[in-house]
Amino acid sequence: MALLRYESQVRPPLVDGDKDYHQVTEDICRPVEARPTKAWWVGFIISVLFLCFGVYSIYREVTYGVGQWNLNRTTGWGWDITNFVWWIGIGHAGTLISAILLLFRQGWRTGVNRAAEAMTIFAVICAGQFPIWHMGRVWDAFFVLPYPNTRGPLWPNFNSALLWDVFAISTYFTVSLLFWYTGLIPDLATLRDRAKKKWRKWFYGITSFGWTGSTKHWQRQEALALVLAGLATPLVLSVHTIVSFDFATSVIPGWHTTIFPPYFVAGAIFSGFAMVQTLLLVTRKVLKLEEYITMEHIDVMNKIIVLTGSIVGIAYLTELFVAWYSADKFENFAFMHTRADFFSPYGWSYYTMMSCNVLFPQIFWIRKMRRNIMVTFFMSVIVNIGMWFERFVIILTSIHRDYLPSAWGPYYSPTIWEVGFYLGTFGLFFTCYFLFVKFFPVIALAEIKHILKRSGDNYKRNMGELEQETVEEFTQVHGHDHGA
Amino acid sequence: MAVKKFISGSFDDEAVLFPAVKQVRRSGHKIHDIYTPFAIHGLDKAMGLRDTSLHVAGFIYGITGTCTALGFITWALTYDWPINFGGKPFFSLVAWIPITFELTVLFSSVGMVWTFCWLCQLAPFVKKDHFNLRSTDDLFVMALECTNKTNEAETISFLQSLGAKDVQVQHKETKWWWGTYDKDKKIFEPKTETVH
Fold first, then answer.
1. What region, left, alpha or beta, does residue A147 occupy, with left being phi > 0 and alpha being psi -120 to 50 degrees?
2. DSSP 3-state of B185
3. pLDDT tens readout for residues A64-115
């Protein structure tokens, strides 16, 4: 294993401050063991209120039908599918951080992976709500499953991208959950062994599955993590690829493009990292974890944001070019008139998307901006607004004016219950996140301890040597003669 | 239930632990286990543990998933109830790749986690004895099993000479049992003789 690791001579340590193992345990367990603060209660209660509004909105939709939403012919997909794709995109960063960065041996992932994975799981739960409730007769949702039924049995259409989606998202959720939880077991065991209160011993006793920390178990756990990472890596890419197939395999102008899979995956990583930034910037501040989620982490994630944002930008431009180059009348109309024309009904949303996703993130080419917390936080919100509009643009502009001008529907805008459903998923997401930060360690304890000593060793040694050297020694070694 | 007698010692530094493992093995003592708060690379090799075959299990589960998906879809769409979807062939393999891939990953990961839990005997409500509660915090706890031939005093001083702290003779349950955490701590009264 050691041979696979390369450590830069100038890379600062991943954990700031001179800590020993016990100090790490103390720092990370403190927020879990302390009583919830007032801020936590306020945030939690607001989240639950949002959740309640969402539940009521769904109740209206189920009771009175999808007519509670403003969907019409031809706008059969509106906020619901926009929100679905948006949430599932956000759910991509966690497994990317934990799986792909594990395979790439990126040590910095240990500071942020646990929270990002949790975020992934909650985001996927939120995403799943939209297609399920959109079905209208939600009590028949199980029809999508291939079970021996009394209708033949009539099997679902395995050639359909929508069915692929059912498999992709449920698999993604299951694998992410397993990956997250098998990593969490040792940390829960730490909490169990520190527990003083009876309910804590009971709760963490159950959830830690009787973990002892035996060497053989660690060996298996590491092997498991590595293979799961290997499996989850193509899985992450497959999920948004398949979501993009929902659009790309249809013959709607604006959807029927082969660029969709890579473009959707880049967009998903883009918005996922933005959401990780939004959450972790607050979390590190409130839980005082600045020494674990350091400026380095923020900097690195901002680099990923500017990279993926630019990939998305290239995809937007490519789409426009191909629409023109294809000389397809309908394709041209979808891109040049209903999207890129500012004065078309949804032109404003296209330019919101362009500026939030492509233009504004370019600020992160400047190092000072990447390492500025306020700028990062502001930009992370902007990016997610932009990515929401991306899905809105793709869905709305393509279907509100289809092939037949006589069928062009009225201008679509959501009802309060559509908006309420969306706000409700925010409530669900943050309720879960608040519970997570209260009952589980936000940072992967065992993994942080694993990199604690090794990380930045070269840096510390070199910096230490530099500081001890006198100026003369330094110039002797590093200076050079000008031929005197 | 099998309560056995152990001599346990705690180390607080990997740099001390590794040479100690070597010395202990060379002296002929049987290391029952070493409990660590995080994965220490190379410790399994130092202890002479063989590599895990968990990934082989993962491969077998994965192949099972592939076969299940392909077999089932082929049977359902070409034999049991073939449906003409827009004039495409009944056997349209390319369109089945996404689901085949997803089921491969699903079977492999669920199967591997299940096998992992089975091998390590992990499950909710499972309770196990611990040598030192700080082995999930900051200590590396080595446990040597005592046999009839073991000279306890000698082993204790041997461990201490290798840098182990808090060396004790402990009677511990080696198997797991069902129960909640709190009550079961009282099942076994630990007969601990601390040596100072």
1. beta
2. coil
3. 988 899 888 888 888 999 999 999 999 988 888 888 888 887 778 888 888 8
Give residues 5 to 64 of B whose Cβ lies within 8 Å of A: 14, 33-44, 47, 49, 51-52, 54-55, 58, 62
Complex confidence, ipTM: 0.90
What is the domain partition of chain A in residue ranges?
A: 8-147+174-460
Q: Are A453 and B41 in contact (CB under 8 A)?
A: no
Dihedral over alpha carbons A358, A362, A364, A368 (to 10 degrees): -150
- Is the minimum CB–CB distance between B78 and chain A shorter than 8 Å? no
Tell me which chain A residues have a C-beta less than 8 angstroms from the C-beta of B105.
Answer: 171, 175, 231-232, 234-235
Rounded to whole angstroms, the Cα distance separating A191 from A174 reads: 25
Q: Tell me the residues of chain B between 137 and 166 that have a Cβ less than 8 Å away from chain A.
A: 137-138
Whole-model pTM? Answer: 0.90
Amino acid at position A412, single letter: Y
Residue B70 at interface with chain A, using a CB cutoff of 8 Å: no
- Residue with tokens 């990515």, as numbered in its chain: A387
Task: Answer whether A93's CB lies under 8 Å from A122's CB.
Answer: no
From its phi and psi, is residue A215 left (phi > 0), alpha (psi between -120 and 50) or beta? alpha
Residue from the list A186, A214, A220 with its beta carbon closest to the beta carbon of B33: A214
